[in-house]
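Hi W., the nicotinamide-adenine-dinucleotide complex you wanted:
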Amino acid sequence: MRRACITGGAGFIGSNLADRLLADGVEVVVLDDFRTGRRAFLRDAAEHPRFRLVEGDVLSPGVLEDALAGCDWVFHLQANADVRHGLEHPQLDLEQNTIATSKVLEAMREAGVANIVFSSTGSVYGEPEVFPTPEDAPFPLQTSLYGASKLACEGLIAAYATGFSITGVICRFVSILGERYTHGHVIDFVRSLKDDPKAITVLGDGKQEKSYLYVQDCIEAILTAAARHEGEGGAHVYNLGTDETVIVDESLGLITDRLGCSPTVRHTGGARGWAGDSPLIRLDTSKIRSLGWAPRLTIAEAIGKTVDWLEHNEHVWQPQVRA
Ligand SMILES: NC(=O)c1ccc[n+]([C@@H]2O[C@H](COP(=O)([O-])OP(=O)(O)OC[C@H]3O[C@@H](n4cnc5c(N)ncnc54)[C@H](O)[C@@H]3O)[C@@H](O)[C@H]2O)c1
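Structure:
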């Protein structure tokens, strides 16, 4: 790997990946328009001589062409990354995930970029029947516009890999935790408890069983899979997660212990927190483990690190200011 473009590189996972690739000696181009990403997350990277920022929308003409020039890898992390609000904006996942990915693939073809890592999601499994869920689970029925849009991206990547000899590494993440975390249930709970430490509302019955992965473990897994398949051609799918799960109420307990509060908990009820919420996520991670990767942190440790980081980085509580 010589020069890598990270689309969405100012975001939670992308900015951590940028720091890691710079430390590994790679030239890094971050493409981002800061709609959810943060300038502060790139503060260290921006000082680096091997770093370049291309500020713009992936859907705007010329932006991808600029960012991808001379790259041998694309880490395509740009997306609407929030699964929950698809039904409020039914075109959003299609435009920001599927159409954006097709633009990335076309720009790669034109620029001759050979390899792509794609940030997919365990949400593509919908509500699976097999647990732990392997990569080759029976073709899943979709339950969210987010998952459906990401599955369409995977299809495009596999078709480009077949048709244009690129290499696609498709990583289906569980929910990611850690430093620079800006969206998901941990920040929702922490924000709510900061407002009112005495009471909190949990969406659903609190019994939803989920899996999480620490961001540095996620990055290590991505880079392990990328190194294994560089230049090989074809599409290669990996689940990225831990073998552990926690139920939402346990997760809330870990957060309240960390914050030192004991609120009254009200559940909105039902097995799902929202339409498209999967009551049980447990992925089979034996394929990525077979490459020698293993997570270093437990889910409890990752939640603890996330809460600590949120407490020490109040700027993520502030509304996003775009230049
Ligand atoms: N965080 C998770 O738990 C999780 C789980 C599964 C999959 N993923 C996937 O991983 C990727 C990264 O997620 P994240 O949590 O870092 O999200 P994030 O929102 O922090 O990062 C996304 C980045 O993309 C940028 N962006 C969005 N639309 C853009 C556009 N049109 N043009 C230019 N930049 C744009 C945002 O400004 C942001 O910096 C996403 O593709 C997401 O779907 C994340």
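The longest strand covers residues 115-121.

W.
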